[in-house]
Amino acid sequence: MNFLTLFAKSGLIGAHRGARSLAPENTLKALRLGEGRGDFIEIDVQLSRDRVVVLMHDDTLERTTNVANIAAFKKRKPYNVCDFSYEELLKLECEEGEKIPTLEATLVFVKEKRLYLNIELKDISAYFDDELFVSLVLELVQKYEVEDRVLLSSFRHDYLRLIKAKMPQIPTAALVEGAHPQNLFTYLQELQVEVYNLDDLLVDRQTVKMLRDKGFFVGVYTINSARRRDELFAMGVNAIFTDTLYKENKS
């Protein structure tokens, strides 16, 4: 079963940034705890200064690591991820002693456990060339032969165009918040995405029905209310991204 076959099912649970209510977000511990608690796991990736693909949501390191407590880094504010080499990132700890993982280590884990992974490419276009970033991510996906186990998503839709130009067999998802793109269906067709992941504030029954009728899968973030989860699934939404509404661990 590939990722799109999975998404054709209903009532899917995506563990947002791993099982982040149980472990530090975007860490291997969060992925380990997310196994069996979701149908797939969502992570965020960006680049270190020396172009290592690492898991990190924020542009800066302060919220999720102990960077502000490291004397050697005191003058490195605002602690942008892109200003730190991977060797420097290894000196940091997330909560509970977890290190910042690489995408490479994550894909090793995904392949071993046969998990499904939604990789969000953070918008780092202000710091790195689009083609460079996309190529580095795709090289790792190809290296570990997990093309059938990943969904690549981004708010920067130029990344999605590049992915389809380089590896059209990998499914992609357009991420949006605030407002739908103009001429939504034409736009999504032009992007060649299979999935539309949208902010809960944008969701309504009519839009979901039209998207599903047009052949797009629909994911909604970030849903931590069981009542809202059930409403969305009743509308025909394929998947939700959640911090808390995990399934019972199967292991």
Number of self-contained structural domains: 1
Report how far apart the termini are. Answer: 20 Å
Overall mean pLDDT: 96
What is the helix fraction of residues, given as a range? 25-40%
Proportion of residues in extended strands: 15-25%
CATH architecture group name: Alpha-Beta Barrel
Helix and strand sequence: HEHEEHHEHEHEHEHEHE
Low-confidence stretches: none
| Spatial ordering of strands, largest sheet | 1-2-4-5-6-7-8-9
Question: Which CATH class applies here?
Answer: Alpha Beta
For the sheet with most strands, the description reads: 8 strands, parallel, barrel
Task: Kindly report the name of the CATH homologous superfamily.
Answer: Phosphatidylinositol (PI) phosphodiesterase
CATH topology: TIM Barrel
Radius of gyration: 18 Å
Number of strands: 9
Instruction: Give the CA-based shape.
Output: globular
